[in-house]
Each structure stands twice: as structure tokens, then as C-alpha cells.
Amino acid sequence: MKNTLLNLAMFIATVTCYAQITFEKGYFINNSGEKTECLIKNLDWKDNPTKFTYKLNSNSTAEITNIRSIQEFGIYNTSKYVRSTVEIDESSDNVNYLSDIKEPIFNTEELFLKVLVEGKANLFSYEKGNIKRFFFSSENTPIKPLVYKRYKVSSYQLGKNERYKQQLFTHLKCKKLSINDVKILKYNNKSLSKYFIKYNNCITPSSTKPSSNNNKPKRNAYKFTIKAGMNSSYFESGNSPSFYFGTIENSSFNEFKGFNLGMEIEYILPFNNDKWTLFIEPSYHLYKNSFNATDFSSSSILLPLGVKHYFFLNKNLSLYLSGAFNAEYVLDNNFTIGNLNLSPDVNLKTSIIYGIGFRYKKMKIETNYSRKKVYESLNPLNVLNINIGYTIN
């Protein structure tokens, strides 16, 4: 088991080093106004970046530049960022840390703002952690924050400062937009982008450049995979009581094999080029073995909840690493050594599961490892699973 895990760790390190790094066609404009065509490392940033990595061509060395040197950069058909010194309210939107002040508390900062919509009126966004803010500009208005803030009215009541609706109704007037269009606006990408596109098309029909986010192909945020596999388990040798573990060793009863069947549900997080997913994988597991006067059988329901990180090796093939917290409910258990019958201490067990796998198109093959305490009188059980899966959507 130790050799298997060591070889697995070395394999993960080797393959990860060769995982594909994506540089895509883009450009940047420096402080002198000079535009440079290049290849930019596309990290599909969740938080607005302060720097980026680029190559002048596919054979050149990667270089890093930052916000102090660049006034604008973009990846064609994907995203665009402009540098601007703006007022920003960074008050927390976490209900446990809300301010009791209705008005925004502004600080002046130099930021890369993401361009969402361009035209007669422009919409920008900024994100950092759990803070999401929007900004706008027009022909007669420099970049300004669109004001939205949740605050505490009392210990039991929350309020909302939705001044952004008044701002848009005042600054972006058009015959096709009414007060009702403003009233229903939500403070998010989708709602605000639709409003700005509608305004721009009203002012200059068909002249609006599409939102850079809208250029990304629509994706299914969820993946459902049916899985089946084989289990192999080993009790750790060492300091278990000789009466129990000695009997197991003397009978060569040190391995349990079985099978599992389940379904994995993955949610693809909307950043970093779909490399991160959250997953839950309810599954049924059965272990069994018998030797002379020793019998073991166990069936249980596992419910791992965890995260995966993908490394895209090419268009169809990817490597992924996973980690999950697992809750296991024992349905049936029988461990008999001669006339002695052992029962698990509790029916609900918890453990941590680590895994590595490959996805080729809709097929998956993976191996998972966990270590769990099944019986108080015996050493922990090491479990290694090998699974094959098929994604049905």
C-alpha cells in the first residue's frame, strides 16, 4: 500500500508539471499609448487582476507586467480590462459584518476594471473576494461607481441603498427605457448588462459591442456521472491487540475486496476556465472476504462532499485531483473471528478521501484513497478504490 501511494504521488507530480498552460491571443496598451499584440495567459480571473503574464509570440519567454505599466489589456473574444482611478466602497456584504451606515464609504483606488458592455454607455465590474461592484461611464460622464449597499437598520432589520437605479434613470435616458425598466434592475452582471445593451441600441441601433462575458460559449454548469468500481482494503499493521490482529495475520486475512456503485454530481465554478468544481457523490459500497474461521462483510452508503481541480492536457483529455469530506453510514456489518463477533463502534463514520483521475471526453477513470477507523480494537483501515465513470450530459 505504501509503495502504491508513493508511486501515485510521483505520477501526479510528473503529469501536473506537463499540464497545459493556455496562452491566448490578446493585446496590451502601455502608459505611452502603444499597443502590443501578444499571447496572454488566460486565468479566467474571478477577482480582478493587478498583473498578467504574456508572451510576444509562442516561442518567446513568458513575462509579467502589472497595473503600473499597463492602461488596458484584453484577450480577444473573451475579456477586456481598463485601468482607472475610481472611488470604491468596500463595505462587506456579509450579513454578519454589515455596516449600520446607509451611505457608501468611498476610498480612491487604481484598479483594472473589467469591461462588460461598450457603446455610448459603458458598464464595468470589479470583484475581490465577496465584494462585487459595478461602474459606468458615458460620453459626458467619467467612470463612476453604481451605488448599492446593504446595511443594518436594526438588529433584526436590513436595508438596501439602491441609488444605482436613480443614477441610471438620470444619466441614461432613452425613449425605449421607462422607470419600470429601472425599478426591476438587479445589481448583477446579467441584469445590468441587458439594460446597458438596450440603452446603447436605443441611442445608436446595432452599434453596441457585445458584452465580453456574452462571447463565452454557454456551458452546462452541472455534470452527472454514473460510476462503478472495485474496492481494496487493508488493515494497518502495527500495534493492534495480538488476539485480534494476530489471528488475522496468522490466517493471511489482510485484504478485503468489493465493489461500489454511485453517481457523481459536479458543479463547475464560473471562473478559472472551468478548472474548479464542487462535487457530491452518493454511492453504495460492499466489502467481503472469508478465510477458515474468519469472515468479514460490510455494506455502507458513502456521501463524499468535496472539490476537484482539473488540468486540461488537450481538448479531450484532462487530469484532475480531488479531496472530499466523507460521511459513511454502515448498513450491515459482520466481522467474525472464530466464535467472536466484532461490531463497529458507531454506524456513522467520517473520513477524508483523496483522489486522482483522468477524463477522456465523457469517460472517467480514477483512483481514490481514504483511511478510516472501523473498530476501536483494530488499527485503521486503508481503502483504495478504482472507478470507471460515464458522464451522461
Give the count of structural domains.
2
Beta strands, count? 22
Note the gap between the termini. Answer: 35 Å
Number of helices: 5
Describe the strand arrangement of the main beta sheet, using strand numbers: 4-3-2-1-5-6-7-8-9-10
Largest sheet: 10 strands, antiparallel
Cα shape: elongated
Q: Strand percentage, roughly?
A: over 45%
Briefly note the structural class of the backbone.
Answer: mainly beta
Oligomer class: single chain
Describe the structure.
The chain is mainly beta and 393 residues long. It folds into 2 domains: 19-214, no CATH class; 222-391, Porin. Helix content is 14%, strand content 52%. The chain contains 5 helices and 22 strands. It has helices at residues 2-17, 163-171, 179-183, 189-203, 242-250; strands at 23-30, 35-41, 51-55, 63-66, 70-75, 79-89, 106-117, 121-128, 131-138, 141-146, 149-154, 157-161, 222-235, 256-268, 276-280, 283-291, 294-312, 317-337, 340-342, 348-360, 363-372, 381-391. A 10-stranded antiparallel β-sheet has the order 4-3-2-1-5-6-7-8-9-10. Strand 20 (348-360) and strand 21 form a beta hairpin. It is elongated and about 90 Å long. The two termini are 35 Å apart. The relative contact order is 0.11. This is Outer membrane protein with beta-barrel domain.
